[in-house]
Amino acid sequence: MTELFVLPLGDCCCNYEVVAPGVRDGHRIHIPVSGYLIKLDDDSLVLVDTGMSRLHISDPELTWRGTPAENALIPTMRPEDSLLFRLAQLEVAPQDIDYVVNTHLHFDHAGNNDLLGAATFFVQREQYEQAKDNPSFPNQYWNLPVLSYELLDGRARLFDALDILPTPGHCEGHQSVALDLPETGSVVICGDAVYCQDNYEHDAWDGQADPERARESALMLQSVADEREAMMIYGHDVEQRRTLRLAPSGSYR
Ligand SMILES: [Zn+2]
């Protein structure tokens, strides 16, 4: 039976305008970072996003020290927030992961790609090309010769229960995931195409690289979710996080 585990992978301290400009500007928040482990019918394991590197546990400034983002984005990770710890709680070793879908290659979504050498990684070609050698997408976490990337061009049905939906705007070639579950029904894993519910409620997209395309992508996701009566999981929503069933105790089937 297909099953989805939401893995809590730490948080990132930033101003509210990073996720929803014009709503609570200047307000400091801790946005949650997540990965999603999906166990497919045939027992193969898919991970959607790999979170922030476990190296931030001992050195929060590791990625952004000396850059303009240094004080704008401060990772906060406890030892139990590492991908390895969360997988181990589910009795999964990193080499057991068969496939990884990176919604995109920012440091909080691809930070542990280096641990998953046995997997095939699915990334949109446009995202891969934008991110390569680009310091906004710290390459040390994902651009490694030992990792095998399969580059996608647009929409794709990867597995019976799993569709890839291109959602550009947050970056070039951002992608989201629609998953069918036997009991819960459909789930849309937005990634950073939608940071939080406030983006919809306040029509607030200026935190995105290309606000107009981001808005179009988010509206498309909303209509897919409406059609499928799907639950949407936003990329970094503080309020929504409190309502989700989190691994290891909770899951969606
Ligand atoms: Zn993010």
Written account of the structure:
With about 250 residues, the protein is of the alpha/beta class. The chain has one domain: Metallo-beta-lactamase, Chain A (4-Layer Sandwich). The chain is about 15% helix and about 30% strand. The protein contains five helices and twelve strands. It has helices at about 85-90, 125-130, 195-200, 210-230, 240-245; strands at about 5-15, 30-40, 45-50, 75, 100, 120-125, 150, 155-160, 160-165, 175-180, 185-190, 230-235. A seven-stranded mixed sheet has the order 4-1-2-3-5-6-7. Strand 8 (about 155-160) and strand 9 form a beta hairpin. The model has no long low-confidence stretch (mean pLDDT about 95). Bound molecules: zinc ion. The site of zinc ion has 6 residues, from loops.
